[in-house]
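Sequence in, structure out. First:
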Amino acid sequence: MQKSAVLDSILARLDTELQALMRGARASFAAATDPDSKAENKYDTRTLEASYVARGQAQRVEELQAALRGFRALSNTTATSAVQVGSLIGLKMAGGTDHYFIGPAEGGLEIVIEGTELMVITPASPLGARLMGRATGDKVTLPSGQQATLTSLE
């Protein structure tokens, strides 16, 4: 599994999500500002609700744009012997090996590369915090209490 392929897949997924969200945000904004959606009485809150949805979507658009910038910046990083943001790692446990990418944002994002599932985690997550600065071969106690060995690092 190549780190560049992982980054490309993450960027493509985030870009697709951003485009869909931007379409939805435009539709929500149009609904919130449409003169035909004027309240018919004091209990009619459609316009207010549409404005809340539009604002929430606009905030998510900003978050995704920042995440895309952060992941694009990782293409310029070089591999090191210690886990850092941008590291592609494997954790070997009794049940097999789990693969993770340490990202600047979007923790929990799951992708499949070459038939292998991979999850993005951030340094702010409990697992990410335990992995930062570790090296191949290090033993790690997972938040669940299970023991794992750091098997690969790119």
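Second:
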Amino acid sequence: MLFWILRILLLFILLVILVWVAGYIYSNDFSVQTKSLKDFNNRKILVIFPHADDEALSAGGVLSKLAGNGANLRWIILTKGEKGTPNGEINESLKQIRIDESRHTAEILHVDSVIQGDFPDGGLNSADKKLNQYIEQQIDDFKPDLVLTYDLSGLYGHPDHIAASEITTRIISNRPKTQLWYVSFPKRILATITLPTHMAEDVNFMNRRMNPTHKIWVGLRGIWNKIRISYVYESQGGSSSKNMPVKFIPFWFYISLTPFEYFYEVK
């Protein structure tokens, strides 16, 4: 009896390994150049996203690695995420919850400072002038060597993502000494997962999506910290298995398939 139990267990382990290897090969684009972060050791890195949790899957591993290399990280969150509800309705009590979640995430990633804005969630377009002044002031104050944000498609057309990207891109275009990277993903991942594209106001947003120019190896520590911070955001469902093709597979397994994070370098 014990022999059969051990045999079944071994077969199960082998099956999991085979599934992982197949998922790893499928999920990663090996045609994209792998780039080192050594040029950013002990440098200033500014992260600009509209919402807490925007960084989790797009750049969490790289932020963890940069912090481990001695980089000075500053993370700007433009809204308090009061519309982060299933139906998109405003819930003022979410503000403090999401602030606490982002602080916990910053502790895990060892981000030096978190700047919490209070622009209207879902309404960054209406605050264009004030938002431009705010982001410009933050950039001029910190003088970053590298800025990370969404691309001009906002990944899935979210108006807040697009507004943040457009303003940041416009400002950085006048600062040639500062590098700008858009977070990006391999085409096959974007084709496989379910994104909330119903939030898009521009039906042609995908025409502005940028394919990655390089990828960064985040390693085991980066993967582990990405898993940790993904589950920190309990107000947003904790994990995002609902967006994955096979719902019963735990979300941490999907994260483990992607030890790379992808970016588009804006020239």
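Remark: The CA atoms of residues 50 and 78 lie 5 Å apart.
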